[in-house]
């Protein structure tokens, strides 16, 4: 009887540990996606498209699933990180992908740090640069903790819940036309393809696609036996990011449907302020800081995970590299500001990272030296190829449009 009780305790502890890992990876991916750009995109596109933005969200979620499920599954089955798989598919490709991811992660982390500074500016009326420096100290503190992985998971979960709860409150206050939103999500008045590629790129572009998969590997989730855990974590992450997107959409729709105009200088802040007054503005500060600080952590962790396997020395100094990544991002913002042209170029390149990495993973899924005797589902391959084709076309189109801006 005693042994049975002990076994149940062990099983319960194991289940709890597994769920913490699954949820931790899910929130790391979701909160990495939910950054300052995410907040701005969601409100701006809702202001432009109205209830028809629901259709854009629906299509982007479908494309997100096609990209994420394929990439996470192949990483877990191969028991290797994205860059190592890419190098096995084509020698040197992993280094190229790592370069793109790190460049993108660093550039966007400057924006994330800026967003964190803005959040503290709204909350406490301090200078955004001072707020950015304080935020950097908080992010670095997470990685100085002995069990940094667990601390990162718990922090991402806490901040994620805070963002969602505050945004739900603003949705309730703004009283959006939910029926119209649902109807237009399936029968939109207009279809804007560029908003779709922007949303997909912002949710699963660059380092974000790999954030959860690499976190699961670090937590020991690997091999075909763990595919169910991976699927649960992946779908949870997509669900969390999608829920936040939907609530932001509804909150903004509630404001614009009353004929109120968003402030073009700061659209997401104006949504919260117009809906709930000064209290709403303070809520925006908390949401912005939560979104930005978790994106800072996610970008730093995942970007370094793309280079740490290239040598034992890099792997031994992973924490130092992550801290250096955060410090460099902060220094650039505090002393230079947001380098607009760099962000434009890297943003355009970011649109190309997804088709390159997803395409590479799909090839890897059929290489026995990478996945052994594993059989990748045909429907997932078709789904993935469709995402590669769509994002390649739209990514190249975006890059062509953005390059001339560098010389203006």
Automatic annotation (TrEMBL):
Chief location of this protein? Answer: membrane
UniProt membrane topology term:
Multi-pass membrane protein
Q: Where are the transmembrane segments?
A: 21-39, 45-67, 88-110, 130-148, 155-173, 193-217, 238-260, 280-301, 321-337, 343-366, 378-400
Asked if Transmembrane is a keyword of the record, the answer is yes
**What keywords sit in the KW lines?**
Membrane, Transmembrane, Transmembrane helix
Its subcellular locations are: Membrane
Q: Which Pfam families match?
A: Nramp
Q: Does the keyword Transmembrane apply?
A: yes
* Name recorded for this polypeptide: Divalent metal cation transporter
Identify the taxonomic lineage of the organism of origin: Bacteria, Bacillati, Bacillota, Clostridia, Eubacteriales
């Amino acid at each position: 009887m005693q042994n049975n009780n002990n076994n149940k305790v062990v099983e319960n502890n194991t289940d709890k540990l597994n769920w913490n890992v699954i949820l931790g990876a899910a929130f790391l991916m979701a909160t990495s996606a939910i950054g300052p750009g995410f907040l701005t995109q969601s409100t701006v596109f809702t202001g432009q498209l109205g209830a028809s933005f629901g259709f854009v969200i629906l299509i982007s979620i479908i494309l997100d699933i096609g990209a994420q499920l394929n990439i996470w599954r192949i990483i877990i089955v191969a028991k290797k990180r994205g860059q190592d798989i890419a190098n096995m598919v084509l020698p040197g490709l992993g280094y190229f992908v790592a370069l793109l991811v790190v460049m993108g992660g660093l550039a966007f982390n400057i924006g994330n740090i800026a967003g964190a500074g803005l959040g503290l500016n709204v909350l406490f009326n301090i200078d955004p640069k001072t707020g950015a420096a304080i935020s950097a100290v908080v992010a670095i503190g997470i990685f100085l903790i002995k069990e940094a992985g667990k601390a990162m998971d718990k922090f991402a979960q806490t901040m994620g819940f805070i963002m969602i709860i505050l945004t739900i409150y603003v949705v309730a206050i703004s009283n959006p036309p939910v029926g119209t939103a649902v109807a237009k999500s399936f029968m939109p008045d207009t279809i804007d393809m560029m908003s779709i590629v922007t949303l997909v790129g912002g949710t699963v572009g660059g380092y974000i696609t790999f954030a959860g998969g690499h976190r699961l590997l670090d937590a020991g989730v690997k091999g075909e036996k763990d595919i169910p855990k991976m699927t649960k974590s992946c779908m949870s992450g997509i669900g969390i990011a999608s829920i936040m997107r939907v609530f932001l959409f509804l909150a903004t729709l509630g404001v614009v449907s009353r004929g109120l105009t968003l402030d073009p200088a700061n659209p997401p802040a104006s949504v919260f302020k117009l809906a709930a007054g000064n209290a709403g503005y303070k809520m925006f500060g908390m949401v912005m800081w939560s979104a930005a600080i978790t994106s800072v952590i996610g970008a730093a962790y995942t970007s370094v995970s793309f280079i740490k396997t290239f040598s034992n020395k890099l792997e031994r100094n992973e924490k130092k590299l992550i801290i250096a990544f955060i410090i460099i991002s902060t220094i650039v913002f505090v002393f230079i500001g947001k380098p607009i042209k760099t962000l434009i170029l890297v943003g355009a390149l970011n649109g190309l990272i997804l088709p390159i990495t997803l395409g590479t993973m799909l090839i890897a899924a059929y290489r026995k030296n990478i996945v052994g005797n594993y059989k990748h589902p045909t429907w997932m391959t078709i789904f993935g190829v469709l995402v590669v084709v769509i994002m390649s076309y739209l990514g190249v189109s975006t890059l062509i449009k953005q390059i001339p801006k560098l010389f203006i």
